[in-house]
Specification:
The protein has 358 residues and is an alpha/beta fold.
């Protein structure tokens, strides 16, 4: 793909082509002003200016939006959306997932990273990663009718091909009530479905924390149902990489087989990935209603995972024992493998398909 080929705008899904006559810079007041093309004449300054520049997109009929230039000039973008009820822990999971990447978690797979926009990346680290490391709970995903990625990285694979990867964290209630957000999902490249044990699992020892959280058991996650009912199918199946994650697995740390997986590193071994998917499928089949497995049943390619983003529950918006994540990178590694980011050996891990374990 050339730098000037049209790509999908990650916000409105209209096609967008890099155009230096429509470039903007963001001011200290977070407004956007036109970028003078004469500023790009110097080769030394040009690269640095474009790293933090934005291009205006006139597509769609919603809010005005500006796309970072590196998102348009570094290969075909790849978008990942977190799906789950509010309070399911998906924001914490996404934050820890990205923290693992910027901490070198993809180095063993020959993948390097760089931020799409340095200022936005610094804000993400400051407002999410550092906050969690300090033991403070993240705020709930705010309500919106407009999808905007919370972080975007440039990932360079072992083949030296660069791809922008954007992560979207969408509010559960918004997905079930806002048609524009559902329309946005038509252009998403991968989905991570997050299962909240307090909503899904019929385990007696979860009754007390369930009560404390003001939650009740449900037969499925309404956000799962809404998304899967809206997305197009191929031969009856959803044909994009998916991961189904049993989140907050620290609540289940003494429960077989969760105890086995939380005690292991999340190395991307195709054999172990299939075993974890098998165990997670059986665990949900035994302790949850069938609706919680619908993402797996609906997708051609779907892996299943156990993960804990924080290692414990928050009290008064703090984690009294600190924060310790477990196996948070596995879902991302799996979907990147399924989309061909890794070598042929690791790409084989994408062989767990919806129906492959039935």
């Amino acid at each position: 793909m050339t730098a000037h080929e049209r790509v999908l705008c990650p916000y409105c899904l209209d096609h967008l082509q890099y155009d230096e006559t429509r470039l903007h810079r963001r001011t200290e007041t977070l407004s956007y002003e036109r970028l003078d093309p004469t500023e790009l004449v110097s080769p030394l300054r040009r690269a640095d200016i474009l790293r933090s520049a934005f291009q205006a997109c006139a597509g769609g009929s919603g809010e005005p939006h500006f796309v970072p230039v590196p998102y348009l000039t570094n290969g075909r973008p790849f978008t990942v959306a977190m799906i789950g009820a509010s309070g399911s822990g998906k924001s914490h999971l996404l934050t820890q997932m990205v923290a693992e990447v910027i901490g070198g978690g993809l180095d063993p797979y020959g993948v390097r990273w760089q931020s799409v926009n340095p200022a936005d990346h610094a804000a993400f680290v400051r407002e999410r990663v550092v906050r969690l490391r300090q033991g403070r709970q993240l705020e709930a995903t705010g309500q919106t009718s407009f999808a905007e990625f919370v972080e975007a990285l440039l990932l360079t694979g072992a083949d030296r091909q660069v791809r922008p990867v954007a992560f979207f964290d969408l509010g559960g209630e918004d997905l079930t009530s806002t048609d524009s957000l559902l329309r946005f999902l038509l252009g998403v490249d991968a989905l991570v479905f997050v299962v909240d044990p307090l909503l899904a699992l019929k385990l007696p020892y979860l009754d007390e924390p369930r009560k404390d959280a003001g939650l009740q058991l449900t037969g499925s996650d309404p956000t799962f149902e809404t998304v899967l009912d809206r997305l197009p199918l191929r031969d009856g199946y959803l044909d994009i990489p998916c991961a189904l994650v049993v989140g907050k697995a620290d609540l289940l740390r003494f429960e077989p087989p969760v105890d086995r997986w939380l005690g292991q590193d999340s190395a991307h071994d195709p054999r172990l990935l299939r075993e974890e998917s098998r165990d997670a499928y059986a665990f949900l089949r035994r302790h949850a209603d069938p609706g919680w497995l619908r993402p797996f049943d609906s997708a051609l390619r779907c892996t299943l995972h156990f993960a804990s983003a924080t290692g414990g529950s928050a009290r008064d918006s703090h984690f009294p024992q600190g924060v310790r994540s477990r196996r948070v990178l596995g879902p991302l590694v799996s979907i990147l493998a399924m989309c061909g980011m890794f070598t042929k050996e690791t790409t084989a891990a994408g062989g767990v398909a919806g129906g492959g374990l039935r």
